[in-house]
Specification:
Blueprint: H1 2-6, H2 12-38, H3 42-66, H4 69-90, H5 95-116, H6 120-140, H7 148-171, H8 184-210, E1 214-216, E2 220-224, H9 225-241, H10 250-278, H11 293-317
Antiparallel strand pairs: 1-2
Helix pairs in contact: 2-3, 2-8, 3-8, 4-5, 4-7, 5-6, 5-7, 6-7, 7-11, 8-9, 8-10, 8-11, 9-10, 10-11
Amino acid sequence: MNKLIESWSMNAEVQWVIFIILCILVFSSLAWNTWNFLKPGKLVKELRVRTRSWWIMCACFIVTTLAHPAITHLGLAFLSFALLREMYPLLKLDQRERNVALLCYTVIPVQYTLAYLGMTTLFLAFIPVFMFVLIPFMLVIRGETKGIVRSISLMPYSLVAWVYGMSHLALLFNLPDIPGFTAGPQGLLLYLIFLVGINDVLQFAWGKTIGQRAVLPNVSPNKTWEGLIGGVLSVTLIAVALRFLTPLEAWEAAFTGFCVSVAGFMGDAIASGIKRDLGIKNSGNAIPGHGGYLDRLDGFSAAAAPFFHLIYFFGVTAAG
């Protein structure tokens, strides 16, 4: 119990970021409620619903981040489970694929246990090496070859995107000690959560404000070059401003913010392609005003692994 209580102690850096997040949410809530009082409409109604959902999501993220590492790992593992559970029914799996899907679910506790125990080498190899061979073999062992190319592409990808990628958030808690770095894994996790979340908002805002040319008109017509560039530049600057949560120098934080923003866009674009192929707008309705888990976590699943390795390279390897 003492360890659980101690895990809630926050250093000054983490406190500042939580304060900033709360200020943004309070300001947004007041702004949308005032707008709705003065001039009700469909847009402001949607913004109010989205903001209420952000309150819930931020509260869940903050509580999970600041709790005991075991609880944090369980929370992140649940997100991977929720992603698979949400997407598999939409993919209309056949019987062979459903059997292998059960195996994919069992990968989640193994992967996050490896992260919790700090078994980094096995963590990094378990899904892209061992499961990448085992899952295709389990698909062909029944001797049925019809649709096997789709199955071999689909099942391993679901693990890489929604389990392997997301689980790198948990691996942040087992980084080696970095001299002079006081924010800890909680600071790093909040840093990434804030960057990915604000990246989504800023790319949307820039696109709505000055967007004219679509980046991927056949995949996601609402994503524009202006929104992408404006979002990337804004997130790069924010990453530098919040680098006190990391062991990074200014230029390292700028490069990391740039990579996180681009990776978030790529993850969102991939998810949009999947949904367009399936003929759906949202992957679910778990989050009011935002859709499903995939609609909100696509950026995290793409940005988590690059972020971890950049932190490891700049903070651990380069520091010697």
